[in-house]
Design brief:
Largest sheet: none
Strand content: under 5%
Distance between the termini: 80 Å
Structural class: mainly alpha
Order of helices and strands: HH
Radius of gyration: 38 Å
Shape: flat
Helix content: 55-70%
Number of strands: 0
Length: about 130
Amino acid sequence: MNKTIITVITSYIFLIMTFLSAEVKGERGDDFLRINDNIQNAELRAELEGLREEFMIEKSRIHEYYNEKMENLKKAKRGEIKTIKNNFAERREELMKKYVGQMRTNPQKRTTEPVKQEAPINNRKK
């Protein structure tokens, strides 16, 4: 019993540590063009900051461009699907009209009452 409790507690601790370490990695972000804290030259630091800001602007412009493209493609896809649905609905209606007389009808529902059985031949009164 003690071994199972210790195993469960240990597993729980590892699980919690995994979640905590995953959150730290997600918050760190993109380290591309990270400026080293040891750089003493102010001009170099300013140039690197400008380069980093320019990179972020270009990156966001690219994201916006492709988001617009994706939205346009989604709209086109929805339109095509609506067109196809309408086309198939018309074809379905034509088929229904064509086979109107030949369509299968559902049989009448049977009652749930038990069937009355006649008495056996030997026990019949004459």
